[in-house]
Amino acid sequence: MSDTSLPFRPATEETPLTRRLLIGVAVLGLALLVFAPLAAVFTEALADGWAAALASLGNHDARSAIQLTLIITAIAVPMNAAFGIAAAWFITKFDFRGKAFLITLIDLPFSVSPVVAGLCIVLMFGANSLVGGWLVAHGFPIVFALPGIVLATMFVTFPFVARELIPVMIEQGRAEEEAALTLGAGGWRVFWTVTLPNIRWALLYGVLLCNARAMGEFGAVAVVSGKIRGQTATMPITIEMLYNEYLSVAAFSMAALLTALALLTLLLKTALERRHADALAASHRH
Amino acid sequence: MHIDIDEISKQFGATAALHPVSLAIPSGALVALLGPSGSGKTTLLRILGGLEFPSSGRVLFDGQDATHLSVQDRRAGFVFQSYALFRHMTVFDNIAYGLTARPRATRPEKAEIARRVTRLLDLIQLPHIGARFPSQLSGGQRQRVALARALAIEPRMLLLDEPFGALDAKVRKELRQGLRDIHDTTGLTTVFVTHDQEEAMELADLVVVMSMGRIEQIGRPQDIRARPASDFVRDFITV
Ligand SMILES: Nc1ncnc2c1ncn2[C@@H]1O[C@H](COP(=O)(O)OP(=O)(O)OP(=O)(O)O)[C@@H](O)[C@H]1O
Ligand SMILES: [Mg+2]
């Protein structure tokens, strides 16, 4: 069957020349768009050596930015995981009118510019708005403070989990859950023992993507945070400010750290995928 | 347990899946719901199992009104058309599910659960597959595991939706006998859905012929053959 001396080739296979050309273009594209910028970030960060790079990350404002980004991610990602599961569950397990519209609505944060999203939050919760004024008067400011930044981040990253889950849950249908019900299990038990295990891989993907985006969000956060150094400036905001002040080593060191966090997320995903390749394949068969 | 279906109807939006239908199923009977696609067989079975609620009418179990009884409280062993085995659990855990899901007060001990699962695996004549996952089973094996899982909860009745639908002719014949045997040993009132008239006639004590949401005829196989109640029934059973 696999006699290579035959002049025939499978219908889906290109000629050797086209193949090499295509591979070349792909590699070139990857190198230009992904590897070169990555390398540049780390080179710039280390332009004055390791000591200078590390020192720039050690000062008060830098630490505050790193801490803030981690706190925001730690709040926004679990919240969006919970909301995403709830939304996907609601959409896939019930039949109701306006379902298609709701699915479109979930994608809204992807189509609206983050800056516009940020402005909406300022309009709704700013000190000059009805709600915002009341909240500020009671010592709970939203805009230019942590709650606003978390809100903006959650808005921008909301679709990731729900979008990963909806197709998987539609494909799996309701039969397994119904079976669990007929076997006497209550709603929560069905969720924990049947629904959740069946969607765990899609959920993990969604959470990792959501996490990467939450750490890196700039536009919406830039509007609602007020960019107060050492207080509401997140890592991406700090990078921009440092760069605008020509503090190249400091800016790129922070950028390198942010990139490393994102790469770590991807690495985690790859490792999990490899470890559980069998389980993954099994849950996709059927 | 005897089941009475009293003037049950079911609307899905504008479509009437069931016009008012009535049916009395004697205790311990093996009943076939027979009819072409879309005749309302699955809908009626799901109403019995508590997965769907009727638009009007009543369901009675042993004379007690069970119309509003929750799916969990019905204790109906349900075998789904696609089997619906839990894909992330072993065969053992699938069969044990209904027992481990019980509230602590009535849940058997671990050793007792294991004993019962082993007995059920013997009953379906697959004693050595407890550690496998559903994706590692053949269609016929999956069907039998689904049956064992439904039996594990010590159900009051057995409801099967096209239990042999997805299998080849030879396996169908074997499993038919298997279902008959299990019915005879457990004595459970059993209702199964099929669109195969030969299967219904051969296996069931009582055949319910359905068409377009209505019951056309109820009777023993030989009576339906001898005296079809309508042209539809005559055509359907002489394919
Ligand atoms: N969830 C639902 N929503 C809307 N219509 C439904 C629903 N379930 C069933 N129906 C409709 O009710 C009618 C009866 O369906 P049912 O599934 O009971 O038929 P069936 O006899 O089991 O057919 P088949 O042999 O194809 O399984 C069909 O017209 C079907 O389209
Ligand atoms: Mg059906």
Question: What layout of secondary structure does this protein have?
Answer:
The complex is a heterodimer of chains A (286) and B (239).
Chain A: H1 16-45, H2 49-58, H3 60-93, H4 99-106, H5 108-111, H6 114-125, H7 130-137, H8 146-157, H9 159-172, H10 175-182, H11 187-216, H12 219-225, H13 235-244, H14 248-275, H15 277-284
Chain B: E1 3-12, E2 15-25, E3 30-34, H1 41-49, E4 56-61, E5 64-65, H2 71-74, E6 76-79, H3 91-100, H4 110-123, H5 139-152, E7 157-161, H6 169-186, E8 189-194, H7 197-203, E9 206-211, E10 214-219, H8 221-226, H9 231-237
Parallel strand pairs in B: 3-8, 3-9, 6-7, 7-8
Antiparallel strand pairs in B: 1-2, 1-4, 4-5, 9-10
Helix pairs in contact in B: 3-4, 3-5, 4-5
The complex binds adenosine-5'-triphosphate (ATP) and magnesium ion (MG).
Residues 12, 15, 17, 35, 37-43, 195 of chain B line the site of adenosine-5'-triphosphate.
GO molecular function, one term (chain A): ABC-type sulfate transporter activity
Membrane topology (chain A): Multi-pass membrane protein
InterPro entries (chain A): CysW_permease, MetI-like, MetI-like_sf, Sulph_transpt2, TAT_signal
